[in-house]
Design a protein that fits this description.
This protein is of the alpha+beta class. About 15% of the residues lie in helices and about 30% in strands. Strands 1, 4, 5, 8, 9 and 10 form a 6-stranded mixed β-sheet that branches. Bound molecules: the ligand Nc1nc2c(c(=O)[nH]1)N[C@H]1C(S)=C(S)[C@@H](COP(=O)(O)O)O[C@H]1N2 and molybdenum atom.
Amino acid sequence: MEMEWKRADEAQADHASRVPPGQRLTAGFPVLHHGEVPYYRDMGKWDLRLFGLVEDETVISYGDFMKLPMREFGNDIHCVTTWSKLDNRWDGVPVAVIMEKVKLKPEAKFVMLHAEEGWTTNLPLEDFLRETSFLAVRHNGELLTPDHGYPVRMVVPHLYFWKSAKWLRGIEFLAADKPGFWERNGYHMYGDPWKSERYDFD
Ligand SMILES: Nc1nc2c(c(=O)[nH]1)N[C@H]1C(S)=C(S)[C@@H](COP(=O)(O)O)O[C@H]1N2
Ligand SMILES: [Mo]
């Protein structure tokens, strides 16, 4: 792609158009979660389970997961607590690659992401399947740190960042929507940052 030189004011306008209502930019990478950070000693105990409305449940070991085709993704992320972080670079497994491992039943319309310690978050199947959704292993060139979701976190950049489950361990396919952890505690079922869908009354 050809490099395009932008004047400072144009660059600023470009940034502004990338920041949803009520959000502020941060240069750092805040850490936010409920519960304890898991530390892994034995990756032989890690796996990723694909289950629910699939023909055959599948379990992917850490070794097999790391051999899946990965690619680079660039995106902006928006946390419901009002910080946004632009221009993230990630490496991860596209959702399409994961979906080759299972055959969905036609009733499947929603996804529940399961993280360590029973933490969950829900989203519609079509949002999970977007080409911009992926399972990340690196952020800005470095392996994910334990705080940010090592070894594998979901990234769904078009929804508020709480839908991007850290320490992902399971992907469950469902016929009907069901609230996950924060959704049971007052967060929005969908969470579109461009519509400020922060809480269930928004
Ligand atoms: N497993 C798990 N994933 C989680 C959370 C959590 O509590 N547990 N919090 C979510 C929330 S509210 C946010 S804003 C982002 C924060 O990700 P970060 O700490 O990498 O910035 O992770 C999301 N993923
Ligand atoms: Mo959050």
